[in-house]
Amino acid sequence: MTTITELAARDDRVASRPFLARLLSRPEVGSLVAAVVIFLLFMAVAEPFRNVANIGTILYGASTIGIMAVPVALLMIGGEFDLSAGVAVTTAGLSGSLLAWNFGLNVWVGVLFSLVLAVAIGAFNGWLLLRTGLPSFLVTLGTFFILQGVNLGVTRLATGNVASAGINDMSGFSSAQAVFGSEVSIGPVNLKITVLYWILLTVVGAYVLLRTRIGNWIFAVGGDAAAARAVGVPVRATKVGLFMAAGFCAWLSGMHLLFQFNTVQSGEGVGKEFIFIIAAVIGGCLLTGGYGSVVGASIGALIFGMTQLGINYAGWNPDWFRTFLGVMLLLATIVNLYVKRRADLR
Predict the structure, then answer these.
(1) What backbone phi and psi angles, to 5 degrees, belong to 276?
(2) What residue spans of the chain are helical by DSSP H?
């Protein structure tokens, strides 16, 4: 049970500890150590990993996961899951593209429609969860299958194919691509705009979680929703807001998918939801809620980016990548429980 009073008392206890003790009690400490180890490993065994120009590629891979790992982590801290997050990204990209292409509209009309739809899907997930009392695992699993079917069915109906049509010759595409699919160069490093969005979302998410009343609400509803409600926490608004935040980030990621590649495959995104959850767990989130870190989730995404490319750079068999993810998930869960118990004892 975690109430607002208990959170405040915990914060006071943490602030009074020595710096090292505070550092070791942070949820993201395990992911930070893992990131350093993985970085040093691939620096030693993979020569291309040491090429400064490849930093942008590694960060890009991490950012495509990190943009969604941030809201997924917030949801898990709030005691909920979103198994529809991966296909929601695809839905966002497809809806904007198909609307603009079918009706010959300015691309920005499709972008705005996609935003409304993505946030509405998040709101629906939160509303149905609270209305029925079903676990979010089941609610969002249902949404996952609904969106997966709609993505494929509507795309086939509109284009006769399994992918959206190209829209790069339509009005507004260039300006939208500059917002969602551009890149900047810093010396030899090319940074996709998703890296900037990922960093911004991490900073905003961490600030909200650790420095605002909303952050206390998220920890409280994840620890014990009934106790939180009893002390005046707006449980319904907090949970619905978290799902809507996930919808917003799905829209942002979907817009990048569309304007980076000009077309969206209707089967894209299936399985990505587990990657987002793994990144959050590696970053310190517990499956039971009430504990976790946004910064840790982003470090988890960075681990994903480094490992995915590091395996290729080292010339290892990429078939072992999924095995690595499973091992990391189990180890992270064990480390997170250990860190939390040590923090509680102090």
Answers:
(1) -60, -45
(2) 4-15, 19-24, 29-45, 55-77, 85-103, 107-132, 136-159, 173-180, 193-211, 213-223, 225-230, 235-261, 272-282, 294-314, 321-345
| Cα distances (angstroms) measured from residue 269 to each of 20, 166, 231, 250, 257 | 40, 19, 39, 11, 10
pLDDT at 30: 79
Q: Tell me the three state secondary structure of residue 183.
A: strand
Give the tokens for residue 28: 């993201």
Residue pair 67/300 in contact by the 8 Å Cβ criterion: no
In sign, the C-alpha dihedral spanning 225, 227, 228, 229 is positive
Contact yes or no for 2/227 (Cβ under 8 A): yes
Q: What pLDDT score was predicted for residue 187?
A: 87
Domains of the chain (ranges, CATH numbers): 26-345 (1.10.3470)
Can you give the pLDDT at residue 14? 47
Cα 172 to the chain's mean position, in Å? 28
Residues in the chain with pLDDT < 70?
1-25, 342-346
Q: What are phi and psi of 217, to 5 degrees?
A: -60, -40
Measured between alpha carbons, how far is 104 from 106 in angstroms, rounded to an integer?
A: 7
Distance CA 48, CA 313 (A): 6
The whole-model pTM stands at: 0.89
Residue-wise pLDDT for 240-281, tens only, equals 999 999 999 999 999 999 999 999 999 988 889 999 999 999
The DSSP code sequence of 271-321 is THHHHHHHHHHHTT--TTSS---HHHHHHHHHHHHHHHHHHHHHT--GGGH
- Other CB atoms within a 10 A radius of the CB of residue 14 amount to 14
What are the pLDDT digits (tens) for 81-125?
999 999 999 999 999 999 999 999 999 999 999 999 999 999 999
